């Protein structure tokens, strides 16, 4: 009787192993045929013209947006908050997938820069773009270029290189 019992157990184990093998094989086949993204998802391009016109009408300063950037720069987010210090935000994915944003506000500069650069601190390095002085900020989640004027602070920040931040700052125009 002992032999028959062990033979039944062997069949059960064999059937479990075969069942597991079939399940793993089916999962592998499904994985091959189900599309999956590598890296970051492809964010949709946003059309920010309406928000830009609204912000330019409402804000007490010259709201800036880039002109002449190649199409490989993709606008991915836009926001104007008139009730929050006339805050303007425009975010882009650069050609290499890095992120660069333009932030403008009438808010007190120190907390605004802290938030817009996600904790970056000023360096002693400045650069002139279109006759205006921009200060480099580093050390936060983002690096940034910051320009302070009497009525508005402008921050170009992101994960992009200073070359990309500069390219964005050079393209900014107010109307």
Describe the structure.
The chain has 175 residues and is an alpha+beta fold. The protein folds into 2 domains: 1-36; 49-174, 3-Layer(aba) Sandwich (Protein Transport Mog1p, Chain A), CATH 3.40.1000. 34% of the residues lie in helices and 32% in strands. The protein contains 4 helices and 9 strands. The protein has helices at residues 2-33, 49-58, 109-116, 162-171, and strands spanning 64-66, 74-81, 87-93, 99-105, 121-129, 132-138, 143-148, 153-158, 172-174. The strands form 2 sheets. It has a 7-stranded antiparallel sheet, with helices on both faces. The longest helix has 32 residues, at 2-33. The protein is elongated and about 90 Å long. 27% of the residues are buried.
In a few lines, what is going on in this structure?
The chain has helices at about 1-35, 50-60, 110-115, 160-170; strands at about 65, 75-80, 85-95, 100-105, 120-130, 130-140, 145-150, 155-160, 170-175. It is of the alpha+beta class and about 180 residues long.
The count of strands amounts to 9
Distance between the termini: 94 Å
Structural class: alpha+beta
Coarse shape: elongated
| Highest-level CATH class of the largest domain | Alpha Beta
Residues in helix, %: 25-40%
Which spans have pLDDT < 50 for at least 5 consecutive residues? none
According to CATH, the fold-level topology of the largest domain is: Protein Transport Mog1p, Chain A
Rg, alpha carbons = 27 Å
- Number of H/I helices: 4
How many strands, what sense, and barrel or not for the largest sheet?
Answer: 7 strands, antiparallel
The number of distinct structural domains comes to 2
Overall pLDDT level:
88
Topology as a string of helices (H) and strands (E) = HHEEEEHEEEEHE
Report strand order across the widest sheet: 2-3-4-8-7-6-5
The CATH architecture of the largest domain: 3-Layer(aba) Sandwich
Strand fraction equals 25-35%
